[in-house]
Amino acid sequence: MIEAGIIGGAGYTAGELIRILLRHPEVSLNFVYSTSQPGRPVAQVHQDLLGETELEFSGELNKEADVVFLCLGHGNSKKFLAENQFSDKTKIIDLSTDFRMASGDHSFVYGLPEFNREKVKEAGFIANPGCFATAISLAILPLAKENLLKDDLHINAVTGATGAGTSLSETTHFTWRDNNFSSYKSFEHQHLNEIGESVKKLQPDHDSEINFIPNRGNFSRGIHATAYTGFSGSLDDAKLIYKEAYKDAAFTFVTDEDLHLKQVVNTNKCLLKLQKFGNKLLITSIIDNLLKGASGQAVQNMNLMFGLNEKTGLDLKANYF
């Protein structure tokens, strides 16, 4: 069994990880570390786990664990690893932004399995992609792979309230979020950096604009993204490119059906739909921001790192009704 630990256990992504790992047939969840909740039953914080686990939050680390997931606030993972040394065999999967951009830090590999599978398999350290970055990258990288991102990209995406984490702010209160809709960080969202870096790795000469408008939706979870750019080929040409790109993907599927979030919420899937309007190709991409956009993808990466089928423990079902 793979002995796993979670650092920072009280947030949304940690809750999803705990749920998945408790049911994972090849994993023993060894500890859930929290500086704010030590000794408190995990099920008191993640209340859907009542009756399913007797685990308590720990104030101690098992530094010999096989894999450790970092579910810390952005900027805290680097500090934590600088202050805490794990064994040479321990694999690290970080869910923050700290190691996503290319650097020498711990030789972190960017964990987007559809385009980095072989590197993930050999990695000791994984930087799990951001939620918007996952949905958008899966929408546009097949074009970059074929050197076809020649025109400006225009992206509009909406995320649920869980994308902001558990900390309360003015825009996460129910009275503000309910029956409301707003954009934020237009053209300067932090995930643009990792999206741009992924594009450049596949299409080094890319120099057109990536224009991104993120939006807050009045629902709990999910991301619905639309991206369009110039494309001189036919719709059938585009479908061939995307189906080839994802022919071996475990969770990413190209469909002709209309898309809506209930198809992917509570799953590790990304669904993509292509449409052609004049000389423009429109790509719609939907994911669950907490699963394919965070914890589900982290477990998918863990499976690859330990030589397991990447679907193991991720047979999650959509909450359709």
Detailed description of the structure:
Belongs to the NAGSA dehydrogenase family. Type 1 subfamily. One of its GO terms (molecular function) is N-acetyl-gamma-glutamyl-phosphate reductase activity. This protein is of the alpha/beta class and 321 residues long. It folds into two domains: 2-128 and 294-305, 3-Layer(aba) Sandwich (Rossmann fold), CATH 3.40.50; 131-287, 2-Layer Sandwich (Dihydrodipicolinate Reductase, domain 2), CATH 3.30.360. 27% of the residues lie in helices and 22% in strands. The protein has nine helices and 14 strands. It has helices at 12-23, 42-45, 76-83, 113-122, 131-145, 174-177, 191-202, 235-245, 295-305; strands spanning 2-7, 27-33, 57-58, 67-70, 91-94, 109-110, 125-127, 153-159, 182-183, 210-216, 223-230, 252-254, 270-277, 280-287. Strands 3-2-1-4-5-7-6 form a seven-stranded parallel β-sheet, covered by helices on one side. α1 crosses α9 (295-305). The protein starts with a strand and ends in a 16-residue tail after the last helix.
